[in-house]
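ingest -> fold -> write
write: protein_1
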Amino acid sequence: MKESGPKAFAKRAALRVISVLFRKNRIVFESNPEFACNTYPVYRYLIDEKHIDGKYEIVWLVKDPEKYADCTLPNHRFIEYSKADDPLKKKIEYLWTIATARALVYSNRLLGKYSKSQYSICLMHGMPLKRTQDIYRIDDLCDNVVCMSDFFEDDLAEGFGITKNKLLPMDFARNDYLFSDRDVSSVLKCGQYEKVFVWLPTYRKNRFQQQYDIEENATGLPLLRSEEDLKRVNDWLSGNQCLLIIKPHPIHAKQLKELKMSNIRVMTDSMLAKNGVQTNELLGASDAMITDYSTVYYDYLLTGKPIGLTTDDVEEYIAKRGFFYDDVYSVLKGVHIDAADGLLRFFEDVKNGIDDKKTEREEMKLLLHPYYRENMSAVLGDLILEKISETIS
């Protein structure tokens, strides 16, 4: 959220002066996890096709710059992302780097905008679903924000604090990866299964937003409340030559990583990165997805494949956090699952080619993805270069 008060005003004024007087040919990129979300495919296009590293210094904001000490990419630099509560001394390099950049390109953490001659674009990490008004606001500190559909315009304007004329009517760059030509199944060693299900639960607890904490099961998963539930699901998967890949939210990755079962595999962000696989490549390689209140639901609609929606704690979620929509299931279309038995029925239906919700999902896809086309990474990348050229002229 935008800082207020005399100190914040003075800080913004000083950074504006620095931004104008010391402008560098630099583009700063951010995503969380690093090299992921909607930023990475745009970055990849700008490097591979437009070769911007020959003209611009490329800076990635990362958690641990030492991790990239051996990087041989030309004209690249890695600096630590600075949090709002970091001491000023720690922030100096960070603030100088982003304030003097020609452009800021980000998906997850909000980088802001420091002068009129700087281009700042928020590629977003999801469209509105869970309530965010109290914890995540852009407050118009940018030039553009990607808006996937007119359906989301009012929610983005009111909930995130964005002037509507700053909204870019475009789809997400990461959705290019849903239709990747790579044989991701072989990379992840899951090509031998008859069906591959992927489960992406959203987080229930967060030490930074404890007012929204939802009661967790002993397993850390919705629906499956015990080891017996997990074993029962694993037995069905094993007996039917199917695999369930659980992709936990980063906040819960450590808890679920210890899960060891023959046909249930946990795949964290770090595991995907180690294999050079993006989350949406994993989704594209699956036969069906299970989720709950994660905006990855919007992405998966493009695949046309079945979606299971866990609902066992929806009332608690509404009471403690809430949604942008009074009736969240007017937006979330799929098979509602409120117990382990329902999960097994969903698996069985997918295995047998039964998909009763296909028409509903197709209608929602047309509503929520009117701007989708191939190579969104290139469309957004070209727009960023065009906007940068306008700041130079």
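write: protein_2
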Amino acid sequence: MAIDGSDYSWRALEYACSLVKLSGGSLVIMTVAPKNAPVPVLFADGDCLTAQIGDEILDAARSVMRGQKISCSYLLERGGNVADHILHAEKAENCDAIVLGSRGFGKLEGLFRNSVSQVIVENADIPVIIVK
């Protein structure tokens, strides 16, 4: 599940949650931050070591996921090609499917903009679900 903070990606997160609840699986939520985004900070609170994710999108996703009763992990990648990061995470995390939000580009505009979802659909080895 890749999110970018758009309305489409939040709808995709809701859809991914419903799929995970039905399957009893787990969810990997990822985003790709610009290279200059703050680095996550580790801090100790008593006996607990916690990673405070510096990326606001993953912080917001973590808030959405509270109380969902879904096994969930968070992945923050930095800079580079977003589609490449998603495709790499698909393999590294052994995912069964990729859920993405659509930006709503038409076919022609998506072709010129090299839409992330189009690149993922064309290159993923697993099912890809695009949520509008």
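write: annotation protein_2
Strands lie at 26-33, 41-45, 48-52, 71-78, 98-101, 128-131.
Residues 106-112 have pLDDT under 50 and may be disordered.
pipeline exit 0
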